[in-house]
DNA sequence: GTACGGATAGTCT
DNA sequence: GACTATCCGTACC
């Protein structure tokens, strides 16, 4: 997608426009992709937004141009990926929360199966079901091989991680409260593809 | 199928 | 020193 796409809409509209598009990572180990089926918007005047209070080193990518990738560490062991929206200086973004796997499913399954927790001594890794591969923001980052040391602050038009146009057939968008937050918990900034079984819940 | 607690480390107060 | 845009294993239905 051209960078103009990410700047063309307000953040909540962009979060909906991204549904049905395909997130792609062309990594050294192989190409993986999945259709975006769940997103959340984070706005500048929104207490749940990382950039709500103060401009800091961590959130710097959020202030960059639309189409910038923002990857951060959460709970000490997982990462989440966001697409930065709006113009330079405005810190808003769309969190990608779930994908319907399309390409490189075997590679995604391996990455998830041998993720950190499974490597404890004596632990025998179990296969991961297709519908569990990218069902959640931390899971999809693992499956796709996204890493903040590589992708954070990159632009979608020059990164190994990028987005292809809408490929999903007709669908309805469901709007709901965001997951896992305490501040701004009642805001209806979560968007899902209705009746899609790859949505996180 | 839901409910709960622990893991874990960077970030900010 | 507290908090976090999460996940997984266990327990129980």
The major sheet is characterized as: 8 strands, antiparallel
Strand content: 25-35%
Order of helices and strands: HHEEEEEHHHEEE
- End-to-end Cα distance: 28 Å
Helix percent band = 10-25%
Please state the average pLDDT score. Answer: 96
Category by helix and strand content: alpha+beta
Molecular shape? globular
Count the E strands: 8
Number of helices: 5
Poorly predicted ranges (pLDDT <50, ≥5 residues)? none
- Compute the gyration radius: what is it? 16 Å
Structure write-up:
This protein has five helices and eight strands, in the order H-H-E-E-E-E-E-H-H-H-E-E-E. It has helices spanning about 5, 10-15, 105-115, 135-145, 150; strands spanning about 20-25, 30-40, 70-75, 80-85, 95-105, 160-165, 175, 190-195. Strands 1, 2, 3, 4, 5, 6, 7 and 8 form an eight-stranded antiparallel beta sheet that branches. A hairpin with a 3-residue loop joins strand 3 (about 70-75) and strand 4 (about 80-85). The mean pLDDT is about 95.
């Amino acid at each position: 997608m051209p960078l103009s796409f990410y700047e063309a809409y307000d953040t909540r509209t962009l979060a909906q426009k991204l549904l049905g598009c395909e997130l792609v990572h062309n990594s050294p180990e192989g190409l993986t992709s999945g259709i975006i089926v769940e997103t959340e918007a984070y706005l500048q005047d929104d207490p749940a937004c990382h950039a709500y209070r103060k401009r800091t080193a961590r959130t710097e990518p959020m202030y960059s141009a639309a189409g910038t990738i923002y990857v951060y560490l959460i709970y000490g062991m997982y990462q989440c990926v966001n697409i930065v929206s709006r113009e330079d200086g405005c810190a808003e973004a769309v969190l990608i929360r779930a994908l319907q796997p399309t390409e490189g499913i075997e590679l995604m399954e391996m990455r998830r199966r041998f993720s950190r927790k499974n490597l404890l001594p004596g632990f025998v890794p179990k296969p991961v079901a297709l519908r569990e591969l990218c069902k959640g923001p931390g899971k999809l980052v693992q499956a796709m091989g996204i890493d903040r040391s590589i992708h954070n602050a990159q632009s979608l038009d020059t990164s190994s991680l990028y987005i292809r146009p809408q490929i999903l057939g007709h669908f309805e968008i469901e709007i709901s409260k965001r997951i896992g937050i305490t501040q701004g918990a009642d805001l209806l900034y979560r968007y899902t593809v209705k009746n899609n079984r790859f949505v996180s819940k």
